[in-house]
Structures are given as structure tokens and as C-alpha cells.
Design brief:
Layout: H1 2-41, E1 46-53, E2 55-78, E3 83-88, E4 95-96, E5 101-105, H2 108-137, H3 142-168, E6 170-172, E7 177-179, E8 189-190, E9 195-212, E10 224-228, E11 237-244, E12 254-262, E13 273-290, E14 302-311, E15 314-330, E16 333-338, E17 345-349, E18 359-364
Parallel strand pairs: 1-18
Antiparallel strand pairs: 1-17, 2-9, 2-13, 3-5, 3-8, 4-7, 5-6, 7-9, 9-12, 10-11, 10-13, 11-12, 13-16, 14-15, 14-17, 15-16
Length: 382
């Protein structure tokens, strides 16, 4: 009898446990099913983005290089002979005209010598005149006349020599330009060739540009160049190639080109390094998108293309990630290659919230306007 009761109690306990366990499992399945149904019926978020259109454009090929600016006319003004500085007639940094007197050296000794030579020349001229008269009358030999004429020429040469020496002690500007810092003082004794100041003509600068021989194709005098320097960030100076060296440097394989850059406000200085863009004559067709449309990552660059689709039998717009490769950038546009075609709508803002398949609402961007820099304008020349 006791065994019977114990068995009955055990059966009841097992039945209750099975009922509780079944209910728990049933509730878990019901909960999971309801969660799936909720997410399946929950509307997908729609991300608002701006977009623009991929376009084909004709870009001139550009060559980038680093060049050095130099003055078309630039020298160290020096003295031609030794002497003591008597007058300094310029200010550091002053603008001077061609032929303007800059420095005068002391010429007291030379002028005294010139006065003595002038007196000797007068005596020689008198003797030459007397000898000519006597020779015409037959009273002196022809050799005496020749000697007096030679003496006169010697005196003339000595006077010319002294006059030239005095002239060399007056230093003048060889061309119009801007002087540098003064390097001498009044009373200082100068040696021949000693520098007085630098003189630079800044109206037009020449730019020396070394380029690789493999880039020579399409380069020729007259092509436009654009120049930027660190001193004036964001400012572009324009010029043109004036000459190309006919010889390749065998040690480096480089060729030197020269460009002329107008400099009316003297913003550019000789010695500056410049970033140079050269527009070649060759024109290539490229597919361009706004620079802001490109998403950069370690796995590669990409853009999001907006495509029409159906969601619950309703037309929607979906973002699709398309890998691309950026070949060149100009202003606000990037030339790309990849599985992209002209007319595709590309997302220009809002990419951080997107992945392939995300629903989007599109706001049109600015209409495409091709860049027309002076370097690119070479392609339009007849």
C-alpha cells in the first residue's frame, strides 16, 4: 500500500514538471515568433541623402612638378675697381631705374692724374702742330713729325684710361628693378668685384621646372602653367612655358623647362619653390563624380549609387555600394573608373548611415559644371 502511494505521488510530480517545462518552451517559441513577426512587419528606415549625377568630361592631361622661381634679370651689383666709398645714393629695398647712380667711390687721385695728363696732352698737341709746320717747310725730318704724333696719341690714350677708371668708380644700375639690403658703408674700402647690393627685376619671373623625359610627350612652348607657393596659400599664379632644354641630363634623366610668370604685384620672389601644374595638349575622356561622393576605406574606394526597386509592391529607392578607383582629382570633381556609368545617381552626403540595400530619399545636388582652369583651357585652343 505504501509503495502504491509513493508511485502515485511520483507520477503526479513528473506530470507537473512536464506541464511546467512544456509551458515554458511553448512561451519561448511564441515569444520568438512574435519578435520575428514584429521585425518582419516593422517599416524599414528611409535615409535622406543628397545626390548628383556621374558625367563624362574631356580633361586635358595634367603634369605636376616642383619648380624654382628665378628673376629674368637678377644680379649682384659689384664695383669694377678698388676704392673708398664716398657716396651711397640708394636705400635698401628701393626701386631704381636703369642707369641710376648707386655708389660713387673716391676719385680725387684719378682726377688729379687726369688733370696732369690733360696738361701733358696739351704740350704734346703743341709740339705735334709745330713739327707738322716745320716738316711742311722742310726744316725737320719726317721722323720728328712721326715721333710728335705718336707722343700725342700716347697722351690721348692715357687720358682715356684715366677717364675710364673714374667712370668705373661710379656704380650704376644695369637695369630697372628692386634693390636688396645694402652691403656697404660710406668710408669703406672696396675690392674689385665686391658686392654692393642685389638687384632683381620682379616684373616677370622665370620658373625652372625639371621634368622626367618620359613626360615630354605633349609638352611644348606656349602651354599654360599654374603655380602655387607656400607664401600665398590658395592663390594661383598663371604663366606659360617659354622654352624646353633640348638636352636630357644623363645622370638624372630629367629635362629642364622654363616658364615665364607675370608678377605685377611682386608677390613672387626669386628662390621660392613652387608647385606647378602643366596642362598638356592631349585630351582624354573621363567619368567624373563629385569628390564628396567617394567613400574611402582600407578595403578600397567606393560610391553609393541610387537605384529604383520594389518594396512590398511599392516603388522605392535603394542605395547600392559600387567599388571605384580614383585616377585624378580636380577642384571639386574626381575622375573614377569601375562599375559605374554616365547618368548614375551617386550619393554626395549621408553615406555614413548607408549600406547596400538601405532605403533612401533623394535630394538633387548642384548641376554638374566642368572645371575650366587655364591649364585645361589649352585643349580648347585652335
Amino acid at each position: 500500500m505504501k509503495n502504491m502511494k509513493r508511485r502515485t505521488k511520483m507520477i503526479i510530480m513528473l506530470g507537473a514538471s512536464a506541464l511546467v517545462l512544456g509551458g515554458t518552451l511553448g512561451f519561448a517559441q511564441f515569444r520568438d515568433q512574435m519578435i520575428k513577426q514584429y521585425f518582419a512587419t516593422m517599416p524599414k528606415p528611409v535615409i535622406a541623402v543628397t545626390a548628383d549625377m556621374a558625367h563624362e568630361d574631356a580633361w586635358t592631361q595634367e603634369l605636376k612638378a616642383v619648380g624654382t622661381l628665378k628673376a629674368v634679370n637678377g644680379v649682384d651689383v659689384t664695383v669694377g675697381t678698388a676704392g673708398l666709398v664716398k657716396e651711397i645714393l640708394f636705400q635698401s629695398g628701393g626701386q631704381v631705374a636703369k642707369g641710376q647712380v648707386l655708389v660713387r667711390l673716391d676719385t680725387d687721385v684719378e682726377r688729379a692724374d687726369l688733370a696732369s695728363a690733360s696738361a701733358e696732352r696739351s704740350l704734346a698737341a703743341t709740339q705735334e702742330s709745330r713739327s707738322r709746320t716745320l716738316a711742311q717747310a722742310g726744316h725737320v725730318a719726317q721722323s720728328a713729325l712721326d715721333k710728335s704724333q705718336a707722343e700725342l696719341k700716347v697722351k690721348d690714350a692715357k687720358m682715356a684710361q684715366l677717364a675710364a677708371l673714374i667712370a668705373r668708380k661710379t656704380v650704376t644700375a644695369p637695369f630697372a628693378g628692386v634693390l636688396g639690403v645694402r652691403k656697404i658703408d660710406v668710408g669703406q674700402y672696396l675690392q674689385p668685384g665686391q658686392s654692393v647690393a642685389t638687384l632683381q627685376d620682379l616684373s616677370v619671373l622665370r620658373l625652372e621646372i625639371p621634368v622626367s623625359q618620359k613626360d615630354l610627350a605633349g609638352l611644348e612652348p606656349g602651354l599654360g602653367v599654374e603655380v602655387e607657393v607656400d607664401a600665398w596659400p590658395g592663390r594661383v599664379f598663371e604663366g606659360a612655358i617659354s622654352a624646353i632644354d633640348p638636352e636630357v641630363d644623363v645622370s638624372s634623366g630629367m629635362v629642364t623647362m622654363e616658364a615665364r610668370i607675370p608678377n605685377p604685384d611682386s608677390a613672387l620672389k626669386p628662390g621660392m619653390f613652387a608647385q606647378v601644374r602643366i596642362g598638356k595638349q592631349d585630351v582624354k575622356s573621363v567619368l567624373v563624380v563629385p569628390v564628396t561622393a567617394v567613400t574611402y576605406s582600407l578595403s578600397g574606394d567606393s560610391v553609393f549609387v541610387i537605384e529604383p526597386s520594389l518594396e512590398a509592391d511599392k516603388p522605392v529607392l535603394v542605395a547600392k555600394r559600387v567599388p571605384v578607383k580614383v585616377s585624378e582629382r580636380r577642384d571639386d570633381w574626381a575622375a573614377v573608373t569601375g562599375d559605374l556609368k554616365p547618368g548614375d545617381k551617386v550619393v554626395t552626403s549621408g553615406q555614413l548611415k548607408l549600406e547596400s540595400g538601405t532605403l533612401v530619399s533623394m535630394i538633387e545636388g548642384n548641376p554638374y559644371k566642368p572645371a575650366t582652369t587655364p591649364a585645361q583651357a589649352n585643349a580648347a585652343k585652335p
